[in-house]
Amino acid sequence: MFTLTVRDHVMVAHSLPDPAFGPAQRLHGATYVVEASLERPDLDEHGIVVDIGEATAALAEALEPLAYRNLDELEEFVGRLTTTEVLARWVAERLADRLGAAGLSAVTVVLREHPDAWASYRLRLRW
Ligand SMILES: Nc1nc2c(c(=O)[nH]1)N=C([C@H](O)[C@H](O)COP(=O)(O)OP(=O)(O)OP(=O)(O)O)CN2
């Protein structure tokens, strides 16, 4: 299995309105470092998983709707907790939509909250 990983970051504001999250129930900011790992069982005819430029652009496009936004105000997150885990899946699904034709077998997105805490979601595309 081959993997290509690209990285970006995104700044957001959000709140987590559930008593489980203590002070994070209030509006706060987060800068997530986002790593996207793209898997293919075999390389393509160019000897790559996906072109790095294409993967980087696709990740930036996937993150754009979140950038500098208050996630509480976005229609698709109304009534949902925008935890790091939930956002990792959301980004993975958007990325898979953009790179779906690239023969990938899986997309894994890691969102790093800070250097000591992160969450990830692995989306299998075919197996
Ligand atoms: N599994 C997750 N746990 C938490 C998430 C998350 O997205 N996934 N998010 C938060 C908050 O948004 C924030 O990032 C941290 O808030 P904080 O109050 O500092 O939470 P901690 O768990 O780090 O510390 P406490 O001692 O529990 O306050 C929180 N958790």
From TrEMBL:
This is 6-carboxy-5,6,7,8-tetrahydropterin synthase. It comes from the Bacteria. It catalyses: 7,8-dihydroneopterin 3'-triphosphate + H2O = 6-carboxy-5,6,7,8-tetrahydropterin + triphosphate + acetaldehyde + 2 H(+). Its EC number is 4.1.2.50. The lineage of its organism: Bacteria, Bacillati, Actinomycetota, Actinomycetes, Micrococcales. Pfam families: PTPS (PF01242). GO terms for molecular function: 6-carboxytetrahydropterin synthase activity; metal ion binding. Its cofactor is Zn(2+). Belongs to the PTPS family. QueD subfamily. Pathway: Purine metabolism; 7-cyano-7-deazaguanine biosynthesis. Keywords: Lyase, Metal-binding, Zinc. It is an enzyme of class 4 (lyase). SUPFAM superfamilies: Tetrahydrobiopterin biosynthesis enzymes-like.
